Amino acid sequence: MLEDKFLENLIKKIEPLKNGEIGIGDDSAFLFVPQGSILITQDSFSEKVHFPSNFPLKLSVKRGLRASLSDINAMGGRGKYVILTLGIRKENSKEMGKILKSLEDECKIFNLKIAGGDTISSPFNFFTFTITGILPLGKKPLLRSEAKPGDFIYLSGPLGKMGIALKLIKGNKVNLSKKKKREFIDYFLKPEIPYPLGEELLLSGKVKCAIDVSDGLSIDLHRLCRRSGTGAIIYSEKIPFIKEIDEIFLREEEKFNFLLSSGEEFQLLFTSPFDLDYPKIGKITEEKKIQLERKGKLKILKPLGYDHFK
């Protein structure tokens, strides 16, 4: 499909914005600023880095959108508009209609509006999402810099599901049935994000600090503490994880290293001085050390996790 044809089809198919706002069809989108505050995030996803080259692009775009929306969630916002830059190989141009349909379906699930974007011919396939979100009037976002000594550290849910999925995608041997393996691979393409939990935590008034677990619990905790100027102690036995982890990892050391470094889990890691109904995995300390407690002993926790340039 040629670019001009694709853009014309896009204009016809995408539901127009309402109340005088203008989306696709002009050189820029024209959007009203709501009463409140705006969050803006941008994420890029490239084949061979974020998704295999042989995976359908219409499914990979779903994964990218959810990963991007997770950043809005982590700051207590609710997503509103999506702008997508699509870089695509010429031989994949016939798939652009399917990619658009997939994006539309995801936007309906999360109540998002497509406001614009760009398409280019590229030697490799990639997506770049820009998502805007809104905060309730008068509310400040959840920030990494707001952890205080004495706060409890919480996770929104269990870890490990995406980590196992990534192992399977990379061709690693995993001791699971064929049916289970298929479920995990499907999950890779449609990860669950605890959305809009961030907004709920913000509105509760009991949480001011959060980050999503995108690169690994350990490395993301280090980022949070560095921004807050604090330390932390994590209780290894308190880290929640999916039941399949015990089936796959027979050695405790290997299991905990996996849970601490598993990326793209998208659970929220947050702190609060209050007792909340979420897994409590540690506490924030004044001493600027990140430590792991296991079997009553403390050791320094290294920033384990994903780094693009390692």
Describe the structure in brief:
The chain has helices at 3-13, 57-74, 96-109, 161-169, 178-189, 197-204, 217-228, 244-248, 252-261; strands at 37-46, 78-88, 113-121, 126-135, 152-155, 209-212, 231-235, 268-272, 280-285, 290-294, 297-300.
Summarize the topology.
Layout: H1 3-13, E1 37-46, H2 57-74, E2 78-88, H3 96-109, E3 113-121, E4 126-135, E5 152-155, H4 161-169, H5 178-189, H6 197-204, E6 209-212, H7 217-228, E7 231-235, H8 244-248, H9 252-261, E8 268-272, E9 280-285, E10 290-294, E11 297-300
Parallel strand pairs: 2-3, 7-10
Antiparallel strand pairs: 1-4, 2-4, 5-8, 5-9, 6-8, 7-9, 10-11
Mean pLDDT: 90
As residue ranges, the low-confidence spans are: none
Number of strands: 11
Structural class: alpha+beta
Sheet of most strands: 7 strands, mixed
Distance linking N and C termini:
38 Å
* Shape annotation: globular
Question: With helices defined by DSSP (H or I, 4 residues minimum), what is the helix count?
Answer: 9
- Strand neighbour order, sheet with most strands: 6-8-5-9-7-10-11
Percent range of helical residues: 25-40%
Strand content: 15-25%
SSE order, as H and E? HEHEHEEEHHHEHEHHEEEE
The radius of gyration over CA amounts to 21 Å
Structural overview:
The two termini are 38 Å apart. It contains nine helices and eleven strands. α4 (161-169) crosses α5 (178-189). The strands form two sheets. A seven-stranded mixed sheet has the order 6-8-5-9-7-10-11, sandwiched between helices. It has helices at residues 3-13, 57-74, 96-109, 161-169, 178-189, 197-204, 217-228, 244-248, 252-261; strands at residues 37-46, 78-88, 113-121, 126-135, 152-155, 209-212, 231-235, 268-272, 280-285, 290-294, 297-300. α3 (96-109) links the parallel β2 (78-88) and β3 (113-121). The mean pLDDT is 90. It is 32% helix and 24% strand. The protein has 310 residues and is of the alpha+beta class.
